[in-house]
Every structure is written in structure tokens, then in C-alpha cells.
Design a protein that fits this description.
With about 200 residues, the chain is of the alpha+beta class. It has four helices and eight strands.
Length: about 200
Amino acid sequence: RVRAESGMQTRRFRFWSSHHGPIVGLPHGRPLAVKLARMTEGGWFDQWDAMIRARTLNDWTSAVAQLRVPYMNTMYADADGNIGYIYNSAVPRRLPGIDPSGVLDGSDPRTEWQGFHPLSELPQVWNPSTGWLLNTNSTPFTATTGLAMRREDFPGYMVGDETADVRGLKVPGVERALVQQVAFHPRTQHGAPIGPEDIQRQG
């Protein structure tokens, strides 16, 4: 039912779908379906709620391990000094040789998803020696400096082709400047704590 100038009207629409997902077009007379991870199973808000209510790192990672959210870069920090970064969320497992970056032939059984990668197989960084992490929706390989993980360590479809954006490139330089200011600040030299007002603003 929709509201029109003449009042409420009943309008009917026909939709097509396949086991791959809804049909969104008919290019060249062939149905085109869109398949999005976790589009129909639900559970997004259940996972977010569990993450919010977590009181320990184990509780939080258990919540994230549900992988009910199709895409999300996630940062973590707690009162115990733990920090972490997880790239992506629900990533379908593909057979070798299948490139999902374009349109796939849905009639080919090799293109079917082989379940999902578990949390342990996703790019992530925990408690790096640098003491800091960043997330600017850029590549996970610039989440901090000195990372040993490489793009080649993961399936080609797991990590996008994004690179370090302007924000991601700028943060390491700002971080180094702040560390130098803290290390050589007169109050620090005498064992006194310093606050934000003691740090010069960085451009």
C-alpha cells in the first residue's frame, strides 16, 4: 500500500531471485543476481550487541567470531592495554582459480561459496610493538608500521586493492612526532605525567 494524491493505493511488484540472490537486471537477456555475504541470514545486531556487552578480550573476540557482519574493519582497545585491528568480517571461501572481482557464471558449480573463512584466517594485528594502530578504511598492511604480514599471505579475494590513503600515510609521521615530544618533554624528564595540553598541535 502506498499513499498517492487520490489516497491509498495497492501496487504489486514482481521480483525474481535465485539461490545466488535477487535478480537485479537482465543484461543481454541473461539474469544477473547479486549475492552478498550474510544478506539473508541476519544476526548483524546480535553480533554488535555481543561486542558492546563484552567485558574481556576473549568475550569480544568470541562475539566477532560469529562473523555475522558482511564487511567491517574493527578496532579494539581495553583497560588492560590490549589493542587490536581486524580487517573485514564475513569472507566467503572460494575454490582456487575463482576470481570474484567480476561477473561469475552462476551455472558453474565451481563458483559456489565453500563456507566462510574463520576469524583466525582474517588479516589482523594485536598488541604491536609500535603501541598504536590506525584504520582509515585503507589496506590492512598499513595498520601500523613494521608489519610482517603481506598481501601474498592471504587469498587474493580476501583483501581489496585499496592502498594507504592520505590519512593513513600521514598518521605514522604524526605519531613519531608525538613520541618525540613525550620523550623529551621537560615534565617527562622529571617523572611527572603530561596531558594533551602539553603536546604541541601537529598539522
